[in-house]
Design goal:
Layout (H helix, E strand, L loop, with lengths): L19 E8 L8 E8 L3 E8 L1 H11 L4 E6 L3 E8 L13 H16 L9 E4 L3 H13 L13
Antiparallel strand pairs: 1-5, 1-6, 2-3, 4-5
């Protein structure tokens, strides 16, 4: 029996070392809510509000996210994380490690796995190449407001 071919998530013939901004989503295995809880509360003067209450694994993940200077904005949700990553200089000619989206994601996953003692993330991740300022602003707002819209999120699971 032949297994189905896995679809390549990356944009074909695109160099992810290229300077630019990238929106990345990394899900937990089986979308288990390992990272945090979203607690919403009603406030009649402001409207609905939501607070992220990190779980121990989420605290570990955030520690490593905060150590990546290329990550401009992020949100840790119960079963996934969103990252807005800016690669400034692109491919380096020297022997220093190249800063790229795949390297950043790989490092986050490896460091988290080593500290926790088990892999919690799915094998791959979703990325979107930010095309212009409007796209950037929409993604920024999406990340900012994601906790308030958790029940409507495509990754939502109780």
């Amino acid at each position: 029996m032949e297994l189905p071919k896995r679809k390549n998530n990356r944009l074909e013939n695109y160099d992810y070392n290229t300077a630019g901004v990238y929106f990345v989503t990394i899900c937990t295995k089986n979308r288990k809510p390992l990272l945090c809880n979203i607690v919403s509360c009603k406030n009649d003067t402001v409207g609905d509000d939501a607070h992220i209450v990190p779980k121990p694994i989420g605290i570990v993940v955030e520690k490593y996210i905060r150590n990546v200077p290329e990550i401009e904005k992020y949100v840790i949700m119960p079963n996934h994380i969103h990252l807005l990553i800016r690669i400034e200089n692109g491919r380096m000619k020297a022997s220093a490690p190249t800063v790229s989206v795949p390297n950043i994601v790989r490092s986050l996953k490896i460091l988290t796995t080593k500290e926790i003692g088990t892999s919690i993330f799915q094998r791959s991740y979703h990325d979107h190449i930010v095309r212009d300022e409007t796209d950037y602003a929409e993604i920024w707002d999406y990340i900012e407001n994601n906790p308030q819209k958790w029940a409507l999120d495509r990754y939502y699971a109780e």
